Amino acid sequence: MAELVIAVNPDEDSRLPMLLRVPLADGDLVFRTAGTWPREKALFAYPVGLEEWPDDPVIVERVALRSCVRRGAAIDVIAARSRLNRSQLVFTRARGRDVVFWQSPRTRKQARPNVVTPSARAQGIDDLQIVVDSHEQYGYRFATQRVTTVKRALPCGDYGIVVDGQLVASVERKSLADLVSSLTGGTLRYQVGDLAALPRAVVVVEDRYSQVFTLDRVRPAVVADGLAELQIRWPNVAIVFCETRKLAEEYTYRFLAAAHAWAVAEHAAVARMSLATDEDAELDPGCAAPAPSAAEVRRWARGAGLAVAGRGRLAPEVWAAWRAAHPPSPT
Predict the structure, then answer these.
(1) Phi and psi of 23, rounded to 5°?
(2) Which parts of the chain sit beneath pLDDT 70?
(3) How many CB atoms lie within 10 A of CB 180?
């Protein structure tokens, strides 16, 4: 019967203390790894040559296998025991490089929760218009939500809602790696400070909070303390961990729809109060609406019958015509 063998890594300078030898039909594979079997979290595995397996290994564990088969970009491992009997070595890419993770069904389920996001319209809005920052790369497409997106330069955040010419809500999107680098580098403090000037804002993280405590290139306590400090300093800007990118996209949609409904209702309430009391009651001030992109103005000009070049800078008279057709809101 084939065996999966785990031995002590003889390289004392390595940060991965174990060697994992995986039997395959076309030849054994050897990996450096951090543990003996993935239980609560996936284990990073670094592939090395077969020659790195020591001649006289210090064996930590031998696991008899019922099956060990390569399936596409993964190796399925089934142990001949009743508990903790399934795991998988997944070959993937992270931060632009090839990596391997050794994971169990439990850790895989945690990484990709088996949930179906609702299809109901958020706040009953048929077609929510979301402004996407023009610098946002690989942004959310909102393919399953009833959303129209326009790209403009936002003063803060990556996704925003404009009501009556004012930016009233914004969402800053972060992967865990981006969150950590911007926190330790100091830029996150300024980003959250800018968001705090809006009536409604949130930072959405595409991961679980528990992953903060698995970081190995920065002390987890530094990140946890930094996040807590940001929440104390700017309590009106929540930091929400949404587990996956898909769930973060769904949260962004629901948050911005709720912000739109709130802003519209607040404007109506302010108008009623102004008529009833003749006082200067106003909605919490937001930022001015972000200016349209040149592509948007070019499309508008062509529809309005104005002569406009297919590329390059727009003539000042084209911009002047657009501003005349889109006067600022009296608010």
Answers:
(1) -85, 125
(2) 95, 107-114, 267-289, 328-331
(3) 22
User: Strands (DSSP E) along 28-127, which ranges?
Assistant: 29-33, 43-48, 59-71, 74-79, 86-94, 97-103
* Locus of tokens 């959310």: 140
Task: Compute the distance between CA of residue 99 and CA of residue 307 in angstroms, rounded to an integer.
Answer: 53
Residues 164-198 pLDDT 10s: 888 999 999 999 889 999 999 999 999 999 999 99
Q: What is the 3-state composition of the chain as percent helix, strand, coil, each rounded to the nearest 5?
A: 30, 30, 40
Concatenated DSSP letters of 108-166: HHHHS-------SPGGG-SSEEEEEETT-SS----TTS-EEEEEE--SSSSEEEEETTE
- Which tokens hold the place of 64? 């008899």
Contact 176, 188 (CB under 8 A): no
Residue 322: φ, ψ to 5°: -65, -45
Contact status, residue 74 vs residue 89, Cβ threshold 8 Å: yes
What does the DSSP assignment read for 266-313?
Answer: HHHHHHHHHHHH-----PPP-EEPPPPPHHHHHHHHHHTT----SSSP
> 53: alpha, beta or left, given left = phi > 0 and alpha = psi -120 to 50?
beta
Q: What are phi and psi of 299, to 5 degrees?
A: -65, -40
Residues sharing a CB contact under 8 Å with residue 281, sequence separation 6 or more, in sequence order: 270, 273, 274
Whole-structure pTM value: 0.57
